[in-house]
Each structure stands twice: as C-alpha cells, then as structure tokens.
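Worked example 3 (structure in, sequence out).
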C-alpha cells in the first residue's frame, strides 16, 4: 500500500462514520478515493448537475447555498457532503463552492453504495446525514419495537432470587424459611434440580386442614414437578399459564438454572407501570387527592416506554392521554361538588397537551369557552370555582401552573364564544409581538371535555381568517425564526455557557419548538385544523403547503430530537435528578451526535425555505 493511500486510510479512520469500518474495508475505501484540489471560490456542484461521488473535506472549507442564494451549511475538515444527491438519484439541488483553498477526497458512488449495503452502522449514519431521510435511522435504532407491558420478558419481572428448601426438609422448616423470607412459596430442590413447590395454599389445605404433622417431610405435601417458565418467555404467556391452571406461582428457569419465582402479584405490580392501567386508575379516582399518587408513576411509565423502544410520537400521545384522563377526572369531581354547569362550556388544552406531545416534564396550558348565554353575574362564580378546582388539581398532580398564567383560572382565558372570536380576530388582524406570542399558544387548542360544538365553531372561524392571510402568516413565519437550531456554520453544536446551562443546548426550545413553529405556519396557510405537529406536517404536505420531502424530513427530525430528549430525561429521572431539556453533547456517542446534527440541519434548511417563501431578510 502506497504512502498516499496509507495517509488517506488513516484520515478516514479518524472520522465518523468511517471509523466504524473494519480495517480491511477501510483500506479498500481508501484505495478507491480520488483527490481534488479546489481554489477559493471554485464551484464544486451546481443545481441540476450530476454527482457521482461522496465528497469529504480533507482541508479547507466549503459552503452550500440554496438555489435562491440562502446559506444552508458550511463543511470543514472531516465532514461529508453530496449525500442528499447520492441518496436521491445523483442530481444536486444546491450550489456548493469552496470558501478557502480546499483539498477534497472523492469516494465513487458505487463504493459508497457497497459500504452502505454491507455495513449497517455506516448506512445508519448516512441515512440521516445532511438532511437525509432520518426515518430509516429511527426505525433501525428502535428496531420496530412498540411498548406493551405484556410484551416484557419474564426475566425482567424477577426482583429477587429463588427461596429454596431441600427435598429432605420438614414442613416446619420449610414454613420457617417462607416466614423468614416473607414469601408465599418455597421451591423444593434435590441438588440443583427443581422437584416441587410448597405454597401458603398447600400449608392451609394439605397440612393444617388435613391435620398433617409439621414434622413430616416437605415432599409429602409439596406440589411435585411444578409448571415453570423460562426467563425469556413473555410475561403474557406466563399470565395465561397461571390463569389456565389456577396457579399463582411459577418457578423461572434460565438455561436450566433456577433464577426466581414469578407470582401473580408480581405481574399485577408490573401492570401498574403500564399506561393502560394508569389511565384506568385515574378515571376511577374518587377524590382529587388520589390523583397525585397515580400521576407520580408517569415518569416510570415513560421510562419503560423509552427502554422498550417506543417512538417519541407515541410516547407523547400516551403521556397526553394520561393528562387528559387527569383533566377528565378533575372535571367530573368538580361537577359532582359544584353541581351541573349552568350553561354549556368547552374545556380546551393548549401547548404541548393540545398538540398531544407531552413528556415527563410539562406545565399546564388550558382555557374555557363558555356559551354566549353566559352571564357573569349569575354564572361567573360557578366557572371560576370549576377552573380553580381543575387547575389546582392539575398543579397538585405535577402539572404545574403555567408561568404565563395561560390557564382557565385566569379570567381572560375563561370567556364566552363571542369574546374568543374577537380575541382571534384581533390577533390575526393586528399581529403585534404579544399577539404572536398568544397565537403560538392558542392556535394549538384541542377539545378535551364539555360541549365540542363550541370549539368546532371557533375553530372554523379561526381557519377562515388565517388561510391565505399572507400578512398574518408572514408575521407568524418571522416569529418561527426566533428559535434557531443549535448548530453553527461548520455543523458544530452551538452551546450555552455559565450557570446551570454551561456547555449545553436546549433540546426543547432550539430543537422541538422550531419544528412545531414551522408546522403551525404551514398548517395555517393551508387551512388545516390538526394541531399535532406530525399530523400538521402530513396534512400540509397533502394540501401542497409544504413539499412531501420537506414534511418527511421535518417529521423525522422531530422524532429523532424528541427521542433524544426523552432518553435524556429518562436518564435524569432514573438517577434521581429533576428532568430538564438541557443536553451536554458529551452525553451522546459520536454516532448520536452525527444524527442529531443532521436533524438540526434539516430544521435550519426548512427555516431558510420558509423565510424565502415569505421574503424574510433575516435568512
């Protein structure tokens, strides 16, 4: 191998994802690399040109601009470009040129494709790189898994080792072992072999009731050759076995070795961490004071979903379902105490609850729409009491009061339908800064309880006023540019410094919020009534308010950022820390960092695209 090829191989091996390749494969790739020198200002690719190589910057720097001249990204040493074109047929969309004298490595497309085909980890990185389709990466990372308590393995439910006695022990000795270990069954062994089980039920029915001496051998009353399960079996299968044979204890084996005993109570306890169990328990609450104890399980439920590989989209919907259940329970309890409402009303959720995108860390945003027959003098006390009862109950359950007081307990957000129509008319016709701030909250409303017709009438009115209202939409688009993804010109993370935010970036405000804002603008421009961000993007693409590819990229970016955020919060909760949105890059592997940068780049590209549509000079 020549000195030049050795140098190329060593350079590739120092940069992700080439560092994932075996040494032999890396040598093959290095041998195929071509070298190009481009002077400052030299054009590397033009829109519409054919691209036959993956480019990597060996030294110098290059820039990529959209066809209308907007800066999209800068690439420095070790960074690749041209991926989007290669993954989408080889035709370039943007203009790329050198901003410094640059030395480039060019990897032929057939070699690039063979590396992607033969090395999944390498392919996984490039599926998301430079704004590519992150969905493939996410599916690969999650393995297509979904969350369900009954899909958990038996071994995951074992919380203690087996309690055993020898086959030659007396009944008395076995009972004493059960008492000392506070268990309801002892497993009977001959050496390393399981031969029987003695349970509390055996002691009652076969010893006490039958008058058998406790000094007799345990083998005379045990249940011989007990049914058992493997640690790798599904908990669901174990539960069916218990039910079918009316038994409450199942010895658990792992490769022939006894590792524990599964009990019916263990399975029930595991179900308390299931979202279905939690929602049912909340709906069945008989007092507001029952709810905080139940909602306290939610972080653990979310943690299990994250570990099981559920999507951020799915987790958000489940977490919001729990919040909705708490809200319904509080409204039911409030009406039981206050009596039936004097006029129809609709309770609406705003913010992340409205969008069905909650995590383990959520405050409350809500409001009340009252029928126009509402009379403040006759009905005001009732609805003030209702609003305080529900918002106080939400706060006590962990959904803290909104710092901006965007809640039904605030009189301004507890108004008749006609007043709400006036609010939105003023916000749309006079989009000054406060109006835009309120729009970002109240354009994400979703009906939760009460009379749905009140919300449906208001929503129709809102969509009629916003669709094709270019002046208002331009203001909303400008507002959507206020939260920028934390990525610099050279695809490096832009971090905060000092205090609690030292060396961090905010996954919510600089990752999730920009996508939420983009989706809101595109949906309103198309007259789309959906408020969930994924649904908005899909509907906006269907209405051609955004390209199908742009919507797909944003949905995938949102999913990747969202699951990264949930993993971060789950780690904090597991470690006994308060959950937040501030992530240090060192928490991530280089593999995760590359994909997160790509997700942020997608957001940056789509912000530039929206700015171009509404002729915003900032971008």
């Amino acid at each position: 191998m020549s000195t030049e090829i050795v140098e190329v191989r060593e350079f590739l091996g120092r940069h992700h994802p080439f560092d994932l390749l075996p040494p032999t494969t890396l040598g093959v790739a290095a041998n195929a690399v071509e070298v190009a020198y481009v002077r400052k200002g030299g054009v590397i690719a033009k829109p519409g040109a054919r691209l036959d190589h993956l480019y990597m910057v060996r030294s110098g720097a290059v820039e990529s601009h959209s066809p209308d001249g907007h800066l999209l990204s800068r690439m420095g040493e070790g960074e690749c470009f041209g991926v989007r074109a290669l993954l989408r047929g080889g035709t370039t969309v943007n203009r790329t040129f050198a901003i410094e004298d640059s030395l480039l490595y060019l990897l032929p497309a057939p070699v690039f494709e063979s590396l992607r085909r033969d090395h999944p980890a390498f392919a996984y990185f490039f599926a998301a790189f430079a704004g590519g389709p992150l969905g493939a990466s996410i599916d690969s990372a999650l393995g297509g898994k979904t969350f369900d308590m009954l899909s958990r393995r038996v071994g995951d439910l074992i919380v203690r080792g087996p309690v055993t006695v020898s086959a030659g022990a007396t009944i008395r000795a076995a009972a004493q072992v059960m008492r000392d270990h506070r268990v309801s069954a002892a497993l009977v062994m001959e050496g390393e072999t399981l031969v029987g089980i003695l349970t509390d039920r055996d002691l009652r029915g076969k010893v006490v009731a039958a008058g058998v001496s406790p000094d007799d051998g345990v083998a005379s009353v045990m249940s011989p050759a007990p049914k058992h399960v493997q640690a790798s079996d599904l908990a669901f299968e174990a539960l069916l076995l218990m039910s079918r044979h009316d038994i409450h204890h199942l010895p658990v084996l792992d490769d022939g070795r006894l590792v524990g005993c599964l009990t019916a109570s263990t399975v029930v306890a595991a179900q308390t961490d299931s979202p279905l169990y939690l929602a049912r328990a909340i709906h069945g609450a008989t007092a507001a004071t029952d709810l905080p104890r139940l909602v306290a399980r939610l972080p653990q439920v979310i943690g299990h979903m994250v570990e099981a590989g559920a999507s951020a989209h799915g987790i958000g919907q489940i977490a919001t379902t729990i919040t909705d259940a708490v809200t319904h329970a509080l409204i039911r309890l409030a009406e039981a105490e206050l009596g039936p409402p004097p006029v129809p009303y609709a309770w609406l959720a705003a913010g992340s609850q409205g969008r069905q995108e909650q995590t383990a860390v959520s405050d409350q945003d809500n409001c009340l729409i009252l029928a126009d027959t509402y009379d403040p003098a006759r009905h005001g006390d009732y609805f003030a009491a209702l609003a305080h009862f529900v918002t106080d109950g939400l706060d006590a359950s962990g959904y803290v009061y909104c710092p901006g007081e965007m809640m039904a307990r605030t009189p301004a957000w507890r108004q008749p339908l006609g007043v709400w129509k006036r609010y939105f008319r003023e916000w749309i016709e006079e989009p000054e800064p406060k109006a835009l701030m309120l729009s970002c909250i109240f354009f994400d409303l979703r009906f939760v309880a009460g009379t749905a017709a009140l919300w449906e009438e208001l929503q129709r009115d809102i969509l009629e006023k916003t669709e094709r209202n270019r002046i208002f939409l331009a203001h909303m688009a400008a507002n959507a540019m206020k939260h920028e993804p934390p990525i610099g010109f050279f695809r490096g993370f832009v971090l905060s410094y000092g205090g609690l935010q030292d060396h961090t970036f905010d996954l919510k405000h600089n990752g999730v919020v920009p996508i939420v804002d983009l989706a809101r603008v595109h949906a309103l421009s198309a007259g789309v009534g959906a408020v969930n961000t994924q649904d908005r993007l899909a509907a906006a693409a269907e209405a051609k308010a955004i390209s199908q590819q742009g919507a797909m990229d944003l949905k995938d970016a949102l999913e990747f950022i969202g699951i990264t955020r949930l993993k971060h919060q789950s780690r904090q909760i597991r470690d006994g820390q308060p959950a937040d949105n501030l992530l240090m890059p060192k928490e991530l592997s280089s593999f995760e960092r590359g994909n997160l940068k790509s997700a942020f780049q997608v957001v940056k590209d789509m912000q530039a695209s929206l700015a171009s549509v509404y002729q915003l000079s900032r971008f």
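Notes: The two ends are 48 Å apart (CA to CA). The chain has four domains: 3-132, 142-148+274-458, 155-262, 467-619.
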